[in-house]
What does this fold into?
Amino acid sequence: MRVVIAGSSGLIGSALIPVLRQAGHEVLRLVRRRPAAPDERGWDPYAGRLDEGALDGADAVVNLCGAGIGERRWTEERKRALITSRIVPTRLLAEAVAERKVPTLVNGSAVGFYGDTGSRVVDETATAGEGFLADLCEQWEHTAERAMVGGSRVAMVRTGLVLSPAGGLLGQLRPLFSLMLGGRLGSGQQYMPWISLDDEVGAIRFVLENEAVSGPVNLTGPLPATNAEFTAAFGKVLGRPAPWMVPGFALRLALGGFADEGALIGQRAVPAVLERTGYEFQHPTLEAALDAAEDR
It folds into this structure.
């Protein structure tokens, strides 16, 4: 296939490109500067501009645009940036996909769609939860559905916490654990819907290549773990005990609104669609995913 990727320079996009190319697909990247390589096409989503011919011959578009959810404290300005960095590019791409009859759009989303699920298991049939993140994900997915007007297949990949050897969640935690400052967050009973980077990109490739997969798709490992279980497992992999507990009030002081919607709550989300349609996980357990991330 010819696959056009927006957000190709991020953690997931940069790992997805070589996987798709190794599988024999042609990959083109949308860039917000003047194209400087044969595989680049220009666009400016905030100006509503997509270069003429950018989607010519495309079999699929993958949209991974969006500012990092947990990278900064949630001020009102940051919340606006989280919204616009997702909705504006998605609207332009979805409408272009519909107009140009591109067969497939795979659009980013997140398990934050479900809000706080406590110990309740949720799959893709669950309704949206409450809170800023849930509202954002719901709006994000509705925007992507504009591509369906032209008959395109649309899949919304609701990504969990990606465990990568470089950057992402482990990149933030590794220095703390190395200094023996790691610990559970609050009660530690909130579920963390993790997924290895290999399975994240493997699942996106699987969705691209399987026309029967559409609608929401949870990109999470099959066995979500509590924060306490995650903390213990990561400390064991690093050979660093993690006996501490970060109280909720300290997280709220440091993270603002993200504490109550990202750190102190969780989603016990399971990948029902992937399992039903035959995806085989490379790292089906948390320990395997952590080992893979630390072995590189």
About this structure: Residues 107 and 203 are 13 Å apart (CA to CA). The chain has a mean pLDDT of 90.
